[in-house]
């Protein structure tokens, strides 16, 4: 939902990430068609304040790049990707996508959003794991931004 200046609000983007994590989780565990999942999420009244363009991008691009994202994540994980909790896997893939493909989003925003998503949807201490992985990943993927 664009604001008066044409920009997307951070809360609309945050809602898009929340929807995307839930939708990616659903895709991972059910294997349902992404377009069907998207239609389902767009129909939920509580989701109407989400940035649906960004939700669409995340929902379709994270799975499209899942192999690449898994390769990027693997060196920072303490277990193989298939052994990750599905919620953690969805969050890590989403954040890895943002770190590698959305350079317009500051790394700190990506990490903070990932941690918040883990606190909201993950297991009791998963936010600490997500934070550790994303912090190390951001150091290697965005060294110039970290130094700046």
Structure summarized in a few sentences:
With 148 residues, this protein is mainly alpha-helical. The protein is 70% helix and 0% strand. The chain starts with 9 loop residues before the first helix and ends with a helix.
Largest sheet composition: none
Report the total helices: 8
Counted beta strands: 0
Average pLDDT works out at: 93
Distance between the termini: 31 Å
Q: Work out the radius of gyration.
A: 15 Å
Key features?
148 residues; mainly alpha
How would you describe this protein?
By secondary structure, the protein is an all-alpha fold. The model is unreliable at 1-6 (pLDDT under 50). 70% of the residues lie in helices and 0% in strands. The protein is built from 8 helices and no strands. α1 crosses α2 (34-42) and α1 (10-30) packs across α5.
Task: Describe the protein's topology.
Blueprint: H1 10-30, H2 34-42, H3 52-64, H4 66-73, H5 86-101, H6 107-121, H7 126-141, H8 143-147
């Amino acid at each position: 939902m664009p604001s008066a200046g044409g920009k997307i609000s951070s809360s609309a983007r945050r809602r898009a990430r929340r929807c995307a994590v839930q939708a990616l989780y659903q895709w991972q565990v059910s294997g349902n068609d992404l377009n069907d999942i998207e239609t389902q999420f767009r129909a939920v009244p509580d989701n109407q304040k989400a940035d649906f363009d960004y939700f669409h991008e995340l929902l379709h691009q994270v799975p499209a790049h899942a192999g690449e994202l898994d390769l990027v994540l693997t060196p920072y994980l303490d277990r193989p990707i298939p052994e990750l909790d599905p919620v953690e896997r969805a969050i890590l893939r989403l954040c890895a996508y943002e770190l590698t493909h959305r350079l317009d989003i500051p790394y700190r925003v990506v990490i903070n959003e990932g941690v918040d998503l883990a606190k909201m949807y993950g297991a009791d201490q998963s936010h600490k794991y997500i934070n550790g992985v994303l912090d190390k990943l951001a150091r290697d993927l965005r060294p110039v931004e970290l130094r700046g």
